[in-house]
Recover the amino acids of this structure.
């Protein structure tokens, strides 16, 4: 038995490279994530108003629709499609270090020496917006120093997701454990698998509820389905790694989040913030 998962779940993850952990994200953690995203959405829309693209910030529209309505009314301006830097703050630190998420990371990494990897994203996926539809890729294509180092990704939707509103697909049964060359997807520009490498994958759609977490390792191919509904699909994706063999790419903007061997090594929000000092707002 792990801290939060049972043996069967941990075995499944080790064998298959992914795990759908049902009901693992408690309401207070989801509320933190939602607050962070509402703030980001508010700021983004305020930026469009300030730039003269929009006269009304549309604050009366609900969270699942507002950003899409404002984006369309503003003339579909460019914005950071997978925000990271602009999420950094005390609430994001609390979310990343929520005990339930650290327990999950501890169980799947197999150690209480847990670091937050510095690459995490929010994903506002607007209706019919192809440039946010993530193609087949392996996360380690974005940080090749993790080719042979376990980096755990945790994908957390804020509402129910299915094939209509951009749930993720994993390449179930894929056991090759190789890191493919990354190529830029023609449609979205995202880095991902070449057409040839995608050919033999069979995608398993993972339908999820708010509170569920989809976990996968750095080599597991996955993609998002398009959003063909009229509401926004909100999600966060986080990454964790074992501190003793943490990658350079992870440590750069990451931090030690839990340690039994050396509790004093856990880094505070203020220590984490310093690592972002050179990265301007609006960047990754
Ligand atoms: O949220 C998405 O659309 C894609 C997420 C993803 O691919 C990831 O977290 O690695």
């Amino acid at each position: 038995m792990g801290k939060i998962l049972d043996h069967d779940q941990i075995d499944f993850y080790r064998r298959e490279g992914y795990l759908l952990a049902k009901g693992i994200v408690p309401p207070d953690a989801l509320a933190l994530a939602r607050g962070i995203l509402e703030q980001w959405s508010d700021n983004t829309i305020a930026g469009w108003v300030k730039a003269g693209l929009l006269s009304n910030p549309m604050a009366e529209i609900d969270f699942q629709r507002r950003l899409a309505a404002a984006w369309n009314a503003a003339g579909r301006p460019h914005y950071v499609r997978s925000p990271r830097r602009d999420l950094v703050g005390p609430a994001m630190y609390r979310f990343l270090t929520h005990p339930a998420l650290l327990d999950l990371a501890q169980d799947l990494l197999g150690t209480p020496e847990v670091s937050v990897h510095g690459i995490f994203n929010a994903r506002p996926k607007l209706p019919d917006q192809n440039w946010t539809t993530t193609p087949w890729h392996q996360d380690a294509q974005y940080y090749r120093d993790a080719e042979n180092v376990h980096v755990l990704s945790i994908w957390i939707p804020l509402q129910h997701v299915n094939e209509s509103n951009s749930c993720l697909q994993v390449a179930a049964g894929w056991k090759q454990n190789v890191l493919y060359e990354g190529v830029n997807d023609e449609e979205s520009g995202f880095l991902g698998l070449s057409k040839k490498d995608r050919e033999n994958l069979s995608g398993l759609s993972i339908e999820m509820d708010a509170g569920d977490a989809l976990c996968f390792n750095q080599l597991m191919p996955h993609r998002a389905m398009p959003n063909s509904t009229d509401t926004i699909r909100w999600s966060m994706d986080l990454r964790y790694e074992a501190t003793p063999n943490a990658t350079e790419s992870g440590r750069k903007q990451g931090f030690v989040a839990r340690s039994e061997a050396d509790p004093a090594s856990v880094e505070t929000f203020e220590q984490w913030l310093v690592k972002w000092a050179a990265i301007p707002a609006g960047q990754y």
User: Anything to note?
Assistant: Residues 123, 125, 134, 139, 153, 155, 222, 224, 235, 237 surround 2-oxoglutaric acid (CB under 6 Å). The chain has eight helices and twelve strands.
